[in-house]
User: What shape does this take?
Amino acid sequence: MNSSDSTPVNGVSDGVAQPPPRRHRLLNRRMTFAIDLLVMVGAFAAAYLLRFEFVVPFDHRQRAVDQLPLVLAVQFAALYMSGALSFVWKYVGMAEVPAFLRAALGAAAVLLALRLFLPDAFADLRIPISIIVMNSLLAFGGLLGIRVARRALLERGLSRQRAARNGGRGRPAVLLVGAGAAGVMAVREIRSRGEHDMDLRGFVDDDPLKQGAVINGLKVLGPTESLPKLVSTLGIQQVIITIADAPSAQLRRILKICEGIPVKAQMIPAMYDLLQGRVSISHLREVRVEDLLHRETVSLEEHDLKAFLGGRVVMVTGAGGSIGAELARQAARFGPSRLVLVERAEPLLYEVDRDLREGWPGLDIVPLVGDVGDRERMLAVFREHRPQVVAHAAAHKHV
Assistant: This one.
């Protein structure tokens, strides 16, 4: 086979990014360890230099050399126990700060206890309190700082790559509707991932307290009623609705404004999909008809459903439609022994099968092309898979 050939494997082509080879991952870990080690050694040396105003007496220099292995062991142990060593550098943000803070406080507490309670035989290992405090600030501040700097460099590199891919055509100017938590998450992911070539110009939000505020580097430029003016003055080509689970009335109002401009509108995934981890917030999609339908929230009796579906063979007909796909997703949550998907439209079947495999990789999923009106085909499916529960959502039965 020619090396240029691309053969799909399990429905995924070679064009999909694969994880780096194990050798590269090991090299990255070693480099990360080396950088962390250099920062911590440098922080300890800097603490001694500051303590003695850059003229460290000889006897204290010798003590510092003796104390360094103890300090490094305590600080690495604190980082490991706090989980800070497991963070991927390019995703480090405010959410990771508490882990570094816990590590700094834990390491400082241990070193302080050793300072106070070590017997006289180990007097040389008693680190001055001022050095413990300065070293903790410098070491853990430096570790967090280099991770943030690394993320900033990666994002800048991605921006340059996106600009190069556009070949000078320029990125589409985008406005975000909704400056809440979901909007902030969307900005962070769009900037950090290379999936979208977008020039984010700002937010619009109806909250009067947010008007004029700068959130995650983007300004809230006005309420949603100002969309026509902003689109015109800023040359906006796309609007993204970044309101998780926006009410249908609100969506209809925003879409009506966008249609009148006109400008393309997309939205972030539903909060349920985000919480289940099946998609990221930057996985944009078109606004669907079902998003605009008013439906009352249904409270599921999860314990009963778990007992009813768990460990059983469940079949969903019409699995490629919006209702069938959602029924399949809900059934997958409760751990069936097998999930049989029946759909006569092969492209739709492929999409729902791929979606479910991403969300529940350990689930036994069987996609089958078939029409529920084909008696012989259905009898063959029942004989082979013996479904114990059937969710019948084939479209023609309820249209």
